From TrEMBL:
Belongs to the VHL family. InterPro entries: VHL_beta_dom, VHL_beta_dom_sf, VHL_sf, VHL_tumour_suppress_b/a_dom. Pfam families: VHL. It comes from Holothuria leucospilota. This is von Hippel-Lindau disease tumor suppressor. Residues 15-86 form the von Hippel-Lindau disease tumour suppressor beta domain.
Length: 131
């Protein structure tokens, strides 16, 4: 199921979550040297920062998420608000992560990185409290 969108006045399409109710899981790993904000895009198209209370996702930390199919996630540099990306299963750099329905296998690993940099080369991942 693809995410729902709404039209902005400028004609630009804006992301928002779809109310699918279909469970999904993801593990977001910060493979950059920056502190990352991890945002869920809610049903109104608003950003919800899942790392705000902890001051962001520090380098090498991870966040395990229980989410739903059709719930888009984006990643931003905490200080500059620069867009961060991840490598998709199709080996493409993507800005928006769309969870897929859980099939009983371990959660997909989403390696957050700075565009143009190689992610997660031989470093130890630090524990980050699960949500």
């Amino acid at each position: 199921m693809m995410p729902a969108h709404r039209q902005e006045q400028s004609g630009e399409r804006r992301l928002r979550s779809d109310n699918s109710g279909i469970r999904a899981f993801a593990t977001f790993i910060n493979c950059s040297q920056r502190t990352v904000k991890v945002f869920w895009i809610d049903f109104r198209g608003e950003r919800v920062d899942y790392t705000r209370e902890r001051g962001g996702l520090k380098p090498r930390q991870y966040l395990q998420m229980h989410t739903f199919e059709g719930h888009p996630w984006i990643f931003r540099d905490k200080d500059s608000n620069d867009k961060l990306v991840f490598k998709s299963v199709h080996n493409q750099l993507e800005e928006v992560y769309f969870p897929v329905a859980w099939d009983g296998r371990p959660a997909p690993i989403i390696k957050i990185q700075i565009p143009g940099f190689t992610p997660c080369k031989n470093f130890v991942v630090k524990t980050f409290e699960s949500t």
